[in-house]
Amino acid sequence: MMEIWPALGSALWFGILTSISPCPMATNLAAVSFIAREAQNPWRTFAAGVLYALGRSLTYIMLAALIVASLLEVPSLANFLQEWMGRIMGPLLILVGLFLIGILRLPSFGGNLAARAGKHVSRWGIAGSCLLGTVFALSFCPVSAALFFGSLLPIALEKQSSVLVPLAYGLGTGLPVLALAWTLMGGVQAASHFFKRLADWERPARIVTAIVFILAGAYYSYNTLFQGPGLF
User: Fold this and answer.
1) What is the pTM of this model?
2) What is the pLDDT of residues 5-16, one digit of tens each?
3) DSSP string for residues in 81-117
4) Where do the structural domains in the chain lie, given as residue ranges?
5) DSSP 3-state of 163
6) pLDDT, tens digit, for every residue of 131-144?
7) Which of 65, 77, 87, 152 is the most buried (most CB within 10 A)?
8) How far is the CA of 33 from the CAs of 48, 53, 95, 139, 180, in angstroms?
């Protein structure tokens, strides 16, 4: 059980970094602010934020759990992953690090569909907050796609965890949204200040994470190349 704690910590951090990346964070601010306009008091504003964070987190959890469980259920694929995951992790970590640092770029997808669906769902006010979180979670930005598909899923597959690792990631994506909803209770100005501070902190956090990824990927690749797969 102790072996999974580093994986859970990494998944939690990836979730937080996903949520505070510029595109998802701007979406979160816009969604929670729009919902808050319909709230009649600060606590209803916070409740809307909680429901939105819950919808977003549950979507990531269920999507990751479904993908991991499906892959592990295929014996030939599961055996392939067990044999090759150690060798794949090195180059994959380097690629994700390059995406995070901005050297490589992924196209955004699902944005237009999410925007159109979000306009309809947002009209439901607090009642639609959870569903709104689900809709926007499925609109992956380049950074969130790299973290979800390139970091979370490989860790979950390596640990053969279709529940705990995705759960930690989902919780991580919800924490900044809850903090944002809490600041909205103090007014839009307080939320804007919080958003600016978070945006200032996000870039160095992402760069440090990218450097760690690249160094870890180089280490994995070196050991795989010169010492063989037995190390993993």
Assistant:
1) 0.76
2) 888 998 999 989
3) HHHHHHHHHHHHHHHHHHHHHTSS----BSHHHHHHH
4) 2-231
5) coil
6) 778 877 877 777 78
7) 152
8) 10, 13, 35, 18, 9
